[in-house]
Amino acid sequence: MQIKQGGFAVGDLNLKKYFLPKNLKKDLPASLVVFLVALPLCLGIALASGAPLFAGVLTGIIGGIVVGSLSGSQLSVAGPAAGLTVIVLNGITSLGNYETFLLALVLAGIFQMLLGMLKAGTIANYFPSSVIEGMLAAIGIILIMKQFPHAVGYDADFEGDEGFSQTDKHNTFSGILGALAKINYGAVIIALVSLSLMIYWPKIKKLALIPAPLLVVLTGIGLSALFAGTDFALLDKQFVRIPIVKSSEEFFGLFKTADFSQISNKQVWITAITIAIVASLETLLSLEAVDKIDPIKRISPTNRELAAQGIGNIVSGLLGGLPMTAVIVRSSANVNAGARTKMSAVVHGLLLLISLLCIPVIINLIPLSCLAAILLMTGYKLTRISLFKHMWHQGLSQFIPFVVTIVAVVLTDLLIGVGIGMMVGVFYILRTNLRNPYFYQIIKNGDKKVINIKLAEEVSFLNKAAIQITLTSLPKESDVVIDGSNSRYIDPDVLEIIHNYKHNAYTKGIIVQLLNVKDKYDVPPLKELMYNPN
């Protein structure tokens, strides 16, 4: 049973499937992996956004529990997004204080809910598959390059940064070179041991009941304690640093509320609209990507996701959190960890809450290098060699947008890179469309050629030039049959070319016959065009 609001489902009361033993067996270990991945990312993004560290963890909690419960996606995980750090930092600065920014976040959530009601999520249907595959591979490469410095024990950039240009005045490549110059061998040992456990532990069937990531964390804590006081000792900044809450009073004092007295501030509305648009685009891209790597190949309802994200951002704004989106890094880690339902995302939110309230001291013993190993494995799985081989065999029209998207995302950021990939992908779609407005067949009838031109189902103005060139190049003294039997729509410009050609063809000794070509066609409804893009 589902709760409906504004034409889309916002809740799912059929909870039984989420508690089935066969699902919990996979979801609970996966939630632990997502929790371990999400925790340092939440803290790093909050730090880069100029917001309190608590705000980052709070956003992860809301993204897991609230959005995870309301979302129609079974595998996506919501939380603070690296792509919004600049917007958040500029928003807090321009609005003067954090409370006014929270008002903009509440309004952004309302806008996202409206976008869901208006079914704006259907825009995800227009993302070319090659671009989404390229985005996934690029995220894998970025994870490997960005986590390498953490694995060797040095990174001045914030945890979770996905952009090429970094806030520490370096870029991805110079960040790696800088890390190589300042290696901490204790961190390297922990990372190598952690990678070995991630690779080989799951292969030992009798021991695989203990999740490899949990063993990685326990081993990392143990090795860091062993290295204390030696040349291999880790520095404070090489550990997770979650805020320690000592009392309930201190905990509730961390929450902040939106300043609704600034509702008439024009800049608040501009910031809200910016957050809503960028967050919605990142969410739709992430959702499409997660559906690609879902082993069960489920299709997530995009409009419902926008609504769920909107509700999450409203709650986050009211409690003092950050903007959130569906995040591809956490979501892909969730998929690779074997999750089956959204119970994994919800439990990861609960684990974030428990870690903040009950065991912050223990959490702060976790070395970043062992968490880097988990993300390195996630990155490797996203950018495996077999994916490149598969895209190559799909042909250049798929491979080129795929590669362009990878290069663009790695050298810029997610949205800019995908935008560049989209332009190249659309170019190839239009190129294919221009080449396929008709089927061409030449039949001999004695000494005369009979040329059959069968028009496609949809013949748009984009096909105008191709059809005109074809008609003007037909041989003299031939019979031409233009068949529109399969055509549901022919653009008026194309019809004009066809009728003009028939009228003037006699000068070349050409006899033209039109079969089922109407004088006028009604424009098909948008819904039909969506499923018939040619």
TrEMBL record:
Regions crossing the membrane: 28-47, 53-70, 101-118, 125-145, 183-201, 208-228, 268-290, 349-378, 399-430
Gene Ontology terms describing biological process: transmembrane transport
Limits of the SLC26A/SulP transporter domain: 24-401
Cellular component aspect of the GO annotation: membrane
Keyword Transmembrane appears in the UniProt entry: yes
Localization terms from the record: Membrane
Membrane topology note: Multi-pass membrane protein
Main localization (coarse): membrane
Source organism, top-level taxon: Bacteria
InterPro entries named in the record: SLC26A/SulP_dom, SLC26A/SulP_fam
The keyword Transmembrane helix is assigned to this record: yes
Keyword tags: Membrane, Transmembrane, Transmembrane helix
Protein name: Sulfate permease, SulP family
Organism, as annotated: Mucilaginibacter pineti
